[in-house]
Amino acid sequence: MFKLRKFYLYISQLIAADAVHQVFSGRNLTLALPAALSLFPAATPQQKGAAADLSYGTLRFYGEIDTYLKQLLEKPLTDERLHAVLLVAIYQLLHDKADAFTVVNQAVHAVSQLKRPMAKSWAKGLVNAILRNFLRQKDALNAQSQTNEVAIYSYPQWWINKLKTQYSEHWQNILAVGNQHPPMTLRVNTHKISAQDYLQLLARQEIEANHIGAQAVELKKPIGVDKIPGFTDGVASVQDYGAQLAAQLLDVQANMRVLDACCAPGGKTGHILELAEVQMTALDSDETRLQRVQSNLDRLNLKASLLVGDAASTDWYDGKPFDKILADVPCTASGIVRRHVDIKWLRRESDVASFVAQQAKILPNLWQMLAKGGQLLYVTCSVFDEENQRQIDQFLRNHTDASQLPLDAALNNPQANITHINGQLIPSNAHDGFFYALLQKN
Ligand SMILES: C[S@@+](CC[C@H](N)C(=O)[O-])C[C@H]1O[C@@H](n2cnc3c(N)ncnc32)[C@H](O)[C@@H]1O
After folding, report:
1. Interval 42-48 mean pLDDT
2. Assuming Cys at both sites, which of 159, 196, 301, 384 could form a disulfide with 155, CB separation 3.0 to 4.6 Å?
3. Residue numbers of the domain that contains 85
4. CA-CA distance, 99 to 104, in Å (whole number)?
5. Is there a domain that residue 157 lies in?
């Protein structure tokens, strides 16, 4: 094992550097990592696994790593792939268990493999010098970085400032939780098996888990989807506990007309249908993503009427009001950064206003499709107030037939293990940072 790490670590470094480079060219990591892996078809499963860890880790701590690297460089590097190899190697030197000299030697070897018209000996010498300087000067560099919030928290400064303003008490905790590895939580299909019986099934397969709320079971250690008992038969699905609150809060009853307005990939659609036999319309503007909803429903053996359409338009609407609407609107996803570590670096501050504008079109449009006495659950996976309560306040000012219902009864239950402020989930070990507002039509 040691030999493998020692002699072939550079392959993982190269894959990770390619993925990181793609992210900084604007591609999200979910697409970038498979593309980077495809460049190395001979990589072993261990090398691929290590490459994924290095990609996620480097982006998770990019603010810190980049601050160190800037201090070590006399002038910015023009070669972006070389730069990416250095970022990955510094990540390893700061946060990985691999032996420091192996990391340096392998990174030097990695740059010699880059295909480009650059002087390889120059590149090797540079990487060697920078990484060895890093090791020598680590304490002094660390002391200097402690005055820089981007280095301390590994988020863009605008993001840190926004959370400081919006969460005087919780901002540091929100930033810290966003840098942790996410928990793996399952949703048990209690239509098929009780949560308690499912826990026993897990125990028999030596998978340690805790029942953290209604249908939610958190695994002590993440496992591959193929190892989840009953996954292919629709007995369990992977879904964050915070996301699982949507179906509970919507509280559907059999035969209701329900609209899931931004449904793909269908996590919440499946959950709602597991809880009651409703007439479900599942809408999404992205046809490709909608195919994933169909395959999820097929796995769960559930049915919905799937529509490609814009939730901000009535083009697809048959004119029959819905009893319940779930509006899981497009958002910055700032509440799920620990799962999508690239978001921190791909989002621009100006994106917040663009999402707010999209949400402000979708919400009133869906409202006219809601029956009198019906309820609409507005959801984001964001912790930014502009997309959340501020968006709802603006909507309520313009809609006198709407009232916001308190969520305390559902969320304050001590057994529910939820940290929230008026429907804003504060990301925790148990759940991501979702926002929920339940609106009733008077
Ligand atoms: C947060 S995701 C939804 C997650 C989903 N509810 C689940 O639990 O699996 C937001 C979805 O909104 C879709 N979307 C974005 N703009 C839309 C629009 N104008 N109309 C309908 N869907 C939209 C995106 O394609 C994306 O699938």
Report:
1. 94
2. 159
3. 2-151
4. 9
5. no
